[in-house]
Model the fold of this input.
Amino acid sequence: MGEELKKPVRGTAEWAVATVDCGLGCPHGCRYCYARAKQVDRLRLVSAADWPTFRIDAGAVQRRYPLYPGQVMFPAHHDIVPENLAACRTVLINLLAVGNRVLVVSKPHRHCIEALCRELQRFRRQILFRFTITARDDGILSFWEPQAPGYAERRASLALAFNQGFATSVSVEPMLDSDDVVAMVHDLLPVVSHSIWIGRMNRIGERVLCDSTEMAREIERIERQQDDARIWEIYRQLRDLPAIRWKESIKTVVGLAPAAEPGLDL
Done:
């Protein structure tokens, strides 16, 4: 028989062989949220009205996790926020105690990162923090990610983890201000030890509710700022930096090969 066709590696699979969550919902209210589109609109696991209130999955918190054959992403469909910090800490310890390498992804609250760095210090060689930092302009952040921390708090959280000896990285997906992304990358590089991932806003028509003239203007701006010509310009300016990684949405534009298998984080 011929070689089986492999499923394309995209999304979280570019980073991890498995994903783990500890509940449903997220209070950050990001207007482009892929997790909300999946769990509310497609799977109907929770209502749109209930999505902003995080509900802990006690089974996920108490579960005994296996040793996965590669990097595990936690969380994948929510952020780490004060309301779920204790549950997230428990799941992380359960994952790390059996030897897993864990990619911790969130829009960071400094208080939460301080607590995790303090309580997970003994596991620091198994942890890679990846903080979602999509723009420096707090006006843009407050529109697209209305309840998430501002740029200063996110960068301070990144610096805190870096200075505590943890491996650090950044996800700039989606780029919310591509006109500033090159300057932002250079502002973040001093506190990044691993990588900075850059990606487009995906499936805007499916995931973003265009319910106002302001939203229509913002969608038009995002689409203009991430057209192929602009992607090529960003690529040419950043491609020689060793820390830069490109998400699949950009690789397809500039002709880079997709990841060969899940979890390579390359």
